[in-house]
Prior knowledge:
Oligomer: heterodimer
Number of domains of chain B: 2
CATH class of the largest domain in chain A: Alpha Beta
Structural class of chain A: alpha+beta
Number of strands of chain B: 11
Helix content of chain A: 10-25%
Distance between the termini of chain B: 22 Å
Number of helices of chain B: 8
Distance between the termini of chain A: 41 Å
Strand order of the largest sheet of chain A: 19-18-20-21-28-27-26-23-24
Shape of chain A: elongated
Strand content of chain A: 25-35%
Number of strands of chain A: 38
Number of helices of chain A: 12
CATH superfamily of the largest domain in chain B: von Willebrand factor, type A domain
Helix content of chain B: 25-40%
Amino acid sequence: MKIIFQNSVLIPLLVLILVPLLIHLFAKGKPPVYLYSSIEFILRIMKNTMRIKKPQDYILLALRTLLAATVVLIFLQPLLFAGGKTAGIFRKNNIAVIVDSTASMAFIDGAQTRFAAACAEASEILSGLSSKDTANVIWLNSKPSSVFPEMGVNFSYLRDELQKAQVTSEAGDINEAFRIASSMLKGAEGRKEICVVSDFQKTAWDKSIIDVPEDVEVVKIKVGNGEAANLAIRSFRCEPPHPLAGEEISFYCEVDNFSNQPMQTTLFFSVLESRMSHEIMLPAHGRRTAVFKHTFAGAEIFKATASLKEDAFTGDDKRFLCVNVSQSIRIGIVPDEKSTAKAWKKALDSLSWARAEFISEKDLSGEIPYDVIMLSGWKGAGVAALSEKLKQGGGIVCMPGDGADIDGILALAGRSGSANFAKQNVRMEKSEEKTHRLKISNEKDEIFKLFTGGENVSPTAGIFKARIVFPKWTPESEVLLSYDDNIPALVKISESGTFFIWNMPLGRDFSTMQMQSGFLPFIAEMILSSRNPGKAIQAESMEYFPGDSMALKMERDSLGSDISLKDEGSAEIPVELKNSGGKGFFISKPIRTTGFYTWKYRGRDAGAGVVNFPPVESDLSTIAPELAARTKDSVIVSGGGDVRRMRDGFNLWPMLLIVAFGLALTEGLALLWVERT
Amino acid sequence: MAKFLFKYLKSEDIRKLSSFEFAPKALAEGYLSGRHKSFSRGNSIEFRDYRQFVSGDDPAHIDWRVLARTDRRYLRTYEQETNLECHVFLDSSASMGYGKKISKLEYASFFTAVLCYLVVKNTDKVSLQIFDDKIRNYFPPGSTGRHLNSLLHALESNFAGNKTSVSEALKRSFPLLKRKGTLVVVSDFFDDPASIFSALSPYLHRHFRIHLFHVLAPEEMDLAEIGYATFEDMETKRRIVANSDNIRKQYKNAMDDHINAMRQLAVRRNVDYQVVKTDSHYFNLLDRLVK
């Protein structure tokens, strides 16, 4: 706290405070002498009443001194500044107001949304600025932006913008908002201040540390009051993520309860004409997962919706999912080692849902248009494209070629730097006399699920005359098949995608496995398994969040007018053509609302995507401002009015006038009391 | 007789006193058979009471008729008439000098002069003791005009002196009084009531009739509206700063307590006690002493 006197020239008047003190001392100092017959009684009385009388005198003295001080202070016109800040009336103020417009601000706290309250507070902050000050408003959302490109003086326009503003369904980029605010204040003369008006939602603000320049003050104003019960659909996905027509699909829907009470609700699932529901009981601050099963007959992109009964916060009660159902799996085989490649191709050709074709090493560049890549006798070609494929959740079956560098194989498998192997090249071992048989090393893997049903087929049937010599593989759980001398025969690495190391050379010269009845189902299960990476991928960039721009890559050259993006109500979203590698790459304007969106190419469907509510915004609980976005030091105030008072100072004279009246009245009453006693 | 040129004895007072007769109600112990009743039994025609004969009594006083009728020996006792001795104690301490229109000492001197005149006029004896913390002046009992002149001159030359000590003065005076009589003490009694009555005890044992006249100025009864002032004690010269407005109530209570203490002790000891303010006429004091 600091006080400044506007009429400091009158400070010498403070000596008037001494007047009552002096009067008190001197008025009693030399009273007239009065000769009296005997003062025995007076002495006795004074002795008895001294303890009562003295405080009365001192109370009167204190009251009169305070009264004199108050009257003098009224003339001095003091201004009170909170936190010792006195810059307000003497320096230029530069204030960047960050207004939280994220999805959680849509919650109705009391009579209005948190966002409306935040805008009102921000408007209050701006209302007291003078013509020499500058200000700007920065919206905190997924892509923070400011109203003015730089600090401006048109405060009425800023207030209009605050009045017209709408809350978004987006998550917020706090660091970016502070960065924009700091950059705007950089170079400004005078006092610099960032005012953050937010609900300080726990999931978004907790543990975040913001770096602001030394000369910038940070003021935090909290809107909303803490706990808010909410049910939300956290995630909605299907397995397999790339299903085939006729294949049963499991839709997993996770529901969160952000409240202190157990809650019961109904979860609805709808796709095409089908509609299902589940009653679910959610524990306090708990989560439940519901599963819906569905099978699609045709191959196209289907739109599935999961929804909850509406609660107080509706944004996260619905979630959308695009399911891209394929007619078949496209498999590209690189036949560097021809006999094995032929065996693969022959087997896959007999599967109705697989469409295998030979491709060359040249095709292993850019975006590979196959669901599964099978590399026979691979020696390191197309590592970058293959790694990208794996990252996208694709499947790769790789049989290393003789003399291939094991580091390359490990790098492709995402194990570079691993100490699992000694540095060496792989070596093909072939022997007519010494044959080997296979055994299952990890029978729990889903590939072998089919073979545990009692059918008289085995994936391990067959004799091998040749194989690649591998050292012992760790972890052992990744080895699905191994030879009788524990040399790994099939290794499965499931990370972002699925990578198989195939150490089973096929062909008449190498083995009899391809002639066994168990070979075809084994190959089929392996291919199905390779395009099923679990939770790692989710409909590959078909899901967006509010504020994101949707993107579409066209295989063929297209004009901008050929492509459009439409929402569920067929309203068109502006898109922009960007060239990428000679092919059409379209990107939309940021999308603000959740729902299904469909790409159209000359009127026909060319792709789809969903915009879902950001899960981070569902937990509406808040934290104390001092715990949010920790900066070097910040000031916490309760409202925009406080910010204004902190900046301009609180004019104390009206309050002092009231105090003076009160003191005068009290002095009068005290005098009456003293006289009466 | 005096020429009536005395300060404290005015001619109009003498005229008024012509119809007064000094007559305290209690019996006096005198050396002459006079008009005042005395408990000293002796030869007289005034029958008082019977009492049983005890060894040592004069058999001449036995009532033979009663003896004949009841076969018991009773003595007839008679009341004896005697003259009166009045002992006046005048407080002349510094505090008696207080008073706005008239000081307490002047007021007391007027009363003393009148009383002495009245006693001498009735051929009774009067003594005067002027005291403060000690006996400053003592006039033994006398009933002559010259004696009265001496007393009146002494009153005129009197002045307010030192500290009051009524009890001390009474103690010191007791050996000086040969015969019992009427004791009149005129003072402001700024002394401890218990010690005053303790000093009076020997007098009471000797059947003195005691009259205490408590002389106070009206400003002492109710503290004057002086406001903030340094009160200086006229006797001790001690000073204290006080606001009379603030302490008036407590002062009045303290003064009332003092007077009440005096009054209670007086009633208990069968002593006549009267509070008198200097704004009342001193003749009022004679009501208790004349008939």
